[in-house]
Amino acid sequence: MKILVTGASGQIGKHLIPQFANTEHNVIALDHQQLDITDLDKTVQLFKHCQPELTINLAAYTAVDQAEENSEHAFAVNQQGAANISKAADSINAPIIHLSTDYVFSGNKSTPYTENDIPDPINIYGKSKLAGELAVRQFNPRHLILRTAWVFSNESKNFLTTMLRLARQQEIISVVDDQSGGPTYAKHVAQTIVALTNQLADFTAADWGIYHYSGTPYTTWFEFAQAIFQAAQQKHGFTTPQLTPIKSSHYKTPARRPHNSQLSNQKITDRFTIQPGNWRFALEELLTKPTPD
Ligand SMILES: NC(=O)c1ccc[n+]([C@@H]2O[C@H](COP(=O)([O-])OP(=O)(O)OC[C@H]3O[C@@H](n4cnc5c(N)ncnc54)[C@H](OP(=O)(O)O)[C@@H]3O)[C@@H](O)[C@H]2O)c1
Question: Kindly report the CA angle at 185 between 94 and 241, in degrees rounded to 5?
Fold first, then answer.
């Protein structure tokens, strides 16, 4: 299959492109410079020229705190950009896999979120991503919206790399212990996208829609930080900083975060036999191996 990937140089894209290298798919990987998804004309033109049979949209404005002040930019990319890609793909009859987030939910639920739960985002990033989901659903009936959460890898800016950086700079690190979710290894998201792609040929109309995919087991940021340092210490023998649990109310950020970011994997497992990846095993892999793949 000929596949066009947008936002290909981001955290998930860096894992997705190598995953496709082992398949027979022909992948056109475009970074921000090669295609700005907010430019509708260029997007439509490019799709007409390349004629992909599937598009995977990884392009997004992901700076959660900065989005509070840059709302216009966040919506331009996450809503309008998603609309543009969906329209361009639909115009050449190509389906779309579009990435979304747990932040479409408020986090007020006490159990894992399913695809049937009603989104009610509490920050601008979440609102812009929800608007993007609605645009994808509106403009391309053949869509897979894959919501994931707490993505980490050993490059890019994410919780794992931030913790390792802070450990080199500080003896004491405070981490919130009242937000829970499933840390998700970027490579596992990439493998899930490839698995979905490989099953597209067998899709029935009922298979399009929203799916959740998150790492397992659920944990808190505090426990995740503990696990990172335990693994890092075993492998590299570095000095573990002192970790202090704090409440979100004492760790002020411009954007509010949901207390519950847990996404249920039931639907994707039942329909596509895709199992959630274990983040503890992924940490072991990452902290013993310097490269992601
Ligand atoms: N990271 C997480 O924890 C997480 C959690 C849940 C869902 N997701 C979703 O997963 C997807 C991929 O996330 P990620 O972690 O790979 O994010 P990322 O590392 O920030 O990558 C996003 C990419 O999009 C590009 N981009 C931004 N604006 C663009 C535009 N107007 N046109 C084209 N490209 C543009 C960025 O390029 P520049 O950097 O050059 O601007 C970047 O390469 C996103 O939809 C995100 O919402 C991520």
Answer: 150
